[in-house]
Each structure stands twice: as structure tokens, then as C-alpha cells.
Design goal:
single chain; alpha/beta; two-stranded antiparallel sheet; 11 helices; globular
């Protein structure tokens, strides 16, 4: 029997998305039941997603599941109004940030109530890219207090920027990072310095967004595809077409190659995928359980994509 390249978790941001038709409750229950049946035990959310709507809905989905059998995380520091309309997922008008100690403690207390639990397995400081000092002076020490009290099991940072993670690693003592989209077939910016530092320090890395918001799953020309939340430009599309051509030559789908690439670096301890229906989740797990053709990584290296782990 094949085994997965790395363990997999699910992010529940779509339970709070309000720029498209929301996932109905019955469909969300079907997704969770299927994920549990497939062995997924790692779940992530944030107060940003729907201004708490994702946390509320995930909390209901978790009711009745044995608390000791899954790993639950949420985040602090980046917020929006409850069920606010999202026009720009990357920088939505009306969103705000607060990395102070008091705001962090209030945020965790509120998240615990929404999620229906008395503890978090992981708490991340969320997207502190423009206020790293605030996170280092306020949010991270507050989370360390909660960790010492047993309210939080592990603390860290979640960001789309490798430089933000590096600043946190250099000036704080995180247990785990959620690195979104920065070790993929299109972007390896976490590999040169951040990942080796994490390995030397024993810091776990959860790699989120291995498809860079979709384009590495759909291909360059699918209607509505996205790269880092936005429509891809011509250069990105051309790059993806070249990668897909190399994948085709080796008899592997672009999606499967993207998943395996992000999972292959020795610093990565887990992939965190976006919420999808049972069929999509099974497809992703099947891709991760299937082998990578010999010669794929060297062929991609000819396109300037370094072989996973060669930087370490």
C-alpha cells in the first residue's frame, strides 16, 4: 500500500469566504466526514476568515469528534468584520491588524469560544509582515504566556513571505511556521535560508498553498485560475506552461508534481491544503501516494527549479 509523501492537514478558510456562494452546512459536514474517514486529523482556521465565521462553522463540525485525536490551530493579529464581503483576499478593504498583547489574549479567548474548545494545539501570528516589531513585542510573548498556561500547545507564525518568517525565527522562539506558497514549483524563496535555519533549530514547517492559489492545479489557461490570489500575468502563465510541458513529458500531472515538490523538502513536516469536496481531497491524497517518475526533478532543474533539499 502506498503511503503519503508527507502528512496532510486542511485549512477551513472557505467556510468564511463571503465573495462567492458559501459552502452550505450540509456540504461542509460531508467534507469533514470524508476528511475524517480519509485520516485527516489536522485542521486550521483563523478569525480573519469571515471575521470568525470559519471558526464558528469549524467548531460545529468538530462537535462530537474526540478532542485528543486531532490538531487544531487558529491565528491572531489579522481581522475583518464578521461575514464581511471579500473583494481582495490579499488586502481586503476594511481589514485591520492588531498584534498587541491585550488584543492577542482577547482574540484567543474569542476563538476558543467559537471553536468550542478549551485549548489550541497551535496558535499562529497571522501575516505580521508590516508589523514584525509589534508581533515580536506583543503577540508572540502573549502566546508564550498562554503556552506556559497550557491554553496553547505550540506557537508560531503564518505568512506568505519568507522574510517575515526569517525575522520571527531570528528574534523569537517559534515551535512551528505555516509557510504559505513559498516552496512551490513557482516560488522557492523559503528554501535558501529559512528552511535550513528551521532544520537546525528544530522548528516544524507546515507548507500551505502548494498550488499558489490554484494555478499549479488547474494549469495556466483554466478560466478564473489564480496565482497568489490574483489573476496571473503573462510571465507566470508562460512559466506554468513550461513546467506543465516537462511534467507531460514524464507522464505526471502538473497537480501531482506540485504536491510532491512542496512535500519533498526535508524541512517540510506537513502540507496544509485548502478545503475541497471528498472527490478533490481523495484526488490529492492519491496524487501524494503515487510515485514521482525518475528524472522529473532533474528535468525541472533545467527550468531553474532546484531539486528539493539541494539548498539545505
Amino acid at each position: 500500500m502506498n503511503t503519503l509523501a508527507k502528512p496532510v492537514g486542511l485549512g477551513f478558510g472557505l467556510l468564511g469566504t463571503t465573495n462567492t456562494a458559501p459552502i452550505p452546512d450540509a456540504e461542509a459536514r460531508r467534507m469533514m466526514a470524508a476528511a475524517w474517514e480519509m485520516g485527516i486529523r489536522r485542521f486550521d482556521t483563523a478569525p480573519l476568515y469571515g471575521g470568525g465565521l470559519s471558526e464558528d462553522r469549524l467548531g460545529r463540525l468538530l462537535q462530537g469528534l474526540p478532542r485528543g485525536e486531532y490538531v487544531l490551530s487558529t491565528k491572531v493579529g489579522r481581522y475583518r468584520d464578521y461575514a464581511a464581503t471579500v473583494t481582495n483576499p490579499k488586502d481586503n478593504p476594511g481589514d485591520w491588524r492588531d498584534y498587541s498583547r491585550d488584543a492577542t489574549l482577547r482574540s484567543v479567548e474569542t476563538s476558543l469560544k467559537r471553536l468550542g474548545t478549551d485549548r489550541l494545539d497551535i496558535a499562529f501570528v497571522h501575516d505580521c509582515d508590516e508589523d514584525i516589531t509589534g508581533a515580536l513585542d506583543g503577540a508572540l510573548p502573549a502566546l508564550a504566556e498562554l503556552k506556559a498556561q497550557g491554553v496553547v500547545g505550540a506557537i508560531g507564525c503564518g505568512s506568505n513571505l519568507a522574510a517575515t518568517h526569517m525575522a520571527v525565527v531570528e528574534h523569537a522562539d517559534p515551535d512551528v511556521l505555516m509557510v504559505a506558497g513559498r516552496f512551490t514549483l513557482l516560488d522557492q524563496s523559503a528554501a535558501q535560508v529559512l528552511f535550513p535555519r528551521c532544520m537546525s533549530r528544530g522548528i516544524e514547517v507546515e507548507l500551505a498553498a502548494p498550488f499558489n492559489s490554484g494555478i499549479l492545479a488547474t494549469g495556466a489557461d483554466a478560466p478564473g485560475t489564480r496565482f497568489d490570489y490574483q489573476p496571473p500575468d503573462d510571465n507566470i502563465r508562460a512559466r506554468v506552461r513550461a513546467i506543465q510541458g516537462s511534467c507531460d513529458a514524464h507522464g505526471i500531472s502538473l497537480k501531482r508534481a506540485a504536491l510532491h515538490y512542496s512535500a519533498a523538502h526535508p524541512a517540510v513536516t506537513r502540507l496544509v491544503l485548502g478545503l475541497t469536496g471528498p472527490e478533490g481531497l481523495r484526488s490529492n491524497l492519491d496524487d501524494l501516494a503515487a510515485p514521482v517518475p525518475p528524472g522529473l526533478w532533474p528535468a525541472l532543474a533545467e527550468l531553474g527549479i532546484p531539486e528539493p533539499g539541494k539548498e539545505a
